[in-house]
Amino acid sequence: MQEIVPGVFVETAFRGGNVGAILTDEGLVLIDAPPFPEDARRWKNFLREQTHLPIRAVIMTDSYRDRLLGPFWFQPPLLIAHASTLVAMSSLPGSYAGSVINALTRDPSEMSGFGSAQLLLPNITFTNQAVLHFGKPDLYLYYHPGPTKGSIWVHWPERGVLFTGDTVVVGTPPFVNSDHSKEWLQSLSILRRTRFPADIIIPGHGEITDKESTEPISEFLRLARRRVRSLYKLQRPLSETAILVHELLALFPAPLESELEMVQQRVRTALQFIYNEFRDLEMDGIEILEEDEEMGIEIED
């Protein structure tokens, strides 16, 4: 746990993804929250050591499974997310919290620690952009299509601090959970603009980084789109996208042996979403063309 600039706290070692907190004049704004109860207690205790001010809000950067349980441990007065995240969560069955717990751990002693944990639904949502004002600083929330339909960024422009959620991950393949890979590439191009003030980037997974280190995610998405487009235009079945896993994994450091199967499945899932993205274009009568972004062309400032 560290204070990366005055008033901005980050932890990158919790299971389930990175979490952060920004201290405002009126209290703490949390960016995502640890899904495991013991990690949540440690995070809460650390934050109490930093300030006597209360937690004013928790922001969910997306609706990915690992993000869903964390807010329960903090019971924030405001739970903020994109409108699509609320839609996605509202469609889940009441038993889904149990499914999340089963996915997080199979250790009986850990599972018992979750007790009666439930999913909390966001009570504040937005569609394009929002500004949070709890005194100073003003925090800007932006919708940028990415790994889920409700992916958002949290920005403190004066400090150049940006929380991207899983739009950016470091040292591992991305978590693709929507059919927005083209828009995701455009989002990353926006992030890398010279005029966009983001010197310190807190990714959804991995170490704190900078703009240059976001390029591997773009490379993965561009290559995956090219390869899947070729298969799709040859009318190959979705199952054949699995042959691309090895090539895409080679773009990143080799995972631990214990994590290899999980990471391979993550890449297979990404390829399935991208395949379905092209299928949906065809079903909508839109011709599948070679695109500028496939060649790595950035959006101009």
Output the keywords:
alpha/beta; Metallo-beta-lactamase, Chain A; 2 domains; 7-stranded mixed beta sheet; globular; disordered C terminus
The overall pLDDT, averaged over residues, is 92
Count of alpha and pi helical runs = 8
Show unreliable segments: 292-301
Main-sheet strand order equals: 1-2-3-4-5-6-7
* Overall geometry: globular
Can you give a write-up of this model?
The chain is an alpha/beta fold. It folds into 2 domains: 2-215, Ribonuclease Z/Hydroxyacylglutathione hydrolase-like (Metallo-beta-lactamase, Chain A); 217-295, no CATH class. The chain has helices spanning 37-50, 83-90, 96-104, 108-113, 181-191, 215-233, 245-249, 260-283, and strands spanning 2-5, 8-11, 19-24, 27-31, 55-59, 78-82, 124-126, 129-133, 138-143, 152-156, 161-169, 200-205. It has a 7-stranded mixed beta sheet. The radius of gyration is 19 Å and the shape is globular. The chain starts with a strand and ends in an 18-residue tail after the last helix.
Task: Compile the SSE list and pairings.
Layout: E1 2-5, E2 8-11, E3 19-24, E4 27-31, H1 37-50, E5 55-59, E6 78-82, H2 83-90, H3 96-104, H4 108-113, E7 124-126, E8 129-133, E9 138-143, E10 152-156, E11 161-169, H5 181-191, E12 200-205, H6 215-233, H7 245-249, H8 260-283
Parallel strand pairs: 4-5, 5-6, 6-7, 11-12
Antiparallel strand pairs: 1-2, 2-3, 3-4, 8-9, 9-10, 10-11
Summarize the structure.
With 301 residues, the chain is α/β, with parallel strands linked by helices. It has helices at 37-50, 83-90, 96-104, 108-113, 181-191, 215-233, 245-249, 260-283, and strands at residues 2-5, 8-11, 19-24, 27-31, 55-59, 78-82, 124-126, 129-133, 138-143, 152-156, 161-169, 200-205.
